[in-house]
Amino acid sequence: MQVQVHPYTLRFTRPLATSVGVFHERRGLVVRVEHAGHHGLGEAAPLPGFSVEGVDEALEAVESWRAFVPESLADVETIASAGLPPSASHGVEQALLGWLASTKGESVARLLGATHTARVAVNALAGDAAQARAAVAAGFKTIKVKVGIAPVDEDVRRVRNIRDAVGPTVALRLDANRAWSADDAERALRALADVGIELVEEPTKGLAALARLRAFASIGADESVRTESDLDRVLREGAADAIVVKPMLVGSLLASVRMLKRAAKANVDSVVTTALEGGVGRCGAWAVAAAGPATLACGLDTGSWLASDIHPGPRVERGWACGGAC
After folding, report:
1. CATH assignment of 2-106, among 3.40.50.960, 3.30.390.10, 3.90.1150.10, 2.40.50.140
2. SS3 for 159?
3. pLDDT by residue (tens digit) across 96-144?
4. What is the C-alpha separation between 148 and 167, in angstroms, rounded?
5. I need a labelling partner for 195 at 20 to 30 A (CA). Which of 9, 60, 166, 266 fits?
6. Nearest to 91 by CA among 300, 227, 278
7. Would you call the peptide bond into 70 cis, given omega within 30 degrees of 0 as the criterion?
8. Closest C-alpha among 187, 218, 221 to residue 206
9. Strand (E) or helix (H) holding 203
10. How many CA atoms lie within 13 A of 296 on its CB side?
11. What's domain 120-322's architecture?
12. How far apart are CA 294 and CA 244, in angstroms?
């Protein structure tokens, strides 16, 4: 099996502020495997501040990886997880899944268990009332707002302004990326109790704290859910009403699908989001969300933040994502 690795750098259309810093560009790798007239593409894009490895480490790992021809999904996962860091494992596994799907004449989403007609509800990311209003006008029914990047009182005012701008029927989701202390998180959620918040992703650090905050809002575990073992702990401690799965950071599409199914059995909702990667990785995240399936609107519209892209990715229209070029 032949393997090619292509590094890339993509600029954002505008700075993206998060609690761990402001992103201006995205770096990563496209992995291409080819054998017997079939090929597959994968993406390895560690996210600074969230991934345990960097792009250079991912590149070294993929370049030193020995390619084997898989005969089954079990082969794919075994081959891809052999000592690779998460993003590299994701890129290799996705490429092998693409190759295997091609040999069967079907899509990766179908190979993972999605139906041919699968489409996934998606949220829009908005920083202020004007962006939120524009997203609703474009057909989005769920708006996600990054919080924890300003004092709590400013976050509360901004969220209230966004709610006033979009009206009462649009789902409003917050994402703090653990930026709040447990006390600040409780203060913010108490202050927003009448606003109608669908979900608050990882408002603070620690499963015990997340479990307590469920008294004030629906809580999503994000950074706390990077592995299937993490998910078991979250479920055991009753720490979340929903899980947020980022296949790029999990390091595996196959494991991500299992996590969605495991959450569903426990009556816990699920969201799939990208790690702000390019179109190849977004195709993988869409396939996971379609196959799982995810139960809440997913973060798959992040390609709209990129000035250029490595691949068209899934098609997003009126708040829904479908396979498109995937």
Report:
1. 3.30.390.10
2. helix
3. 999 999 999 999 999 999 987 789 999 999 999 999 999 999 999 999 9
4. 23
5. 266
6. 278
7. no
8. 221
9. none
10. 30
11. Alpha-Beta Barrel (3.20)
12. 9
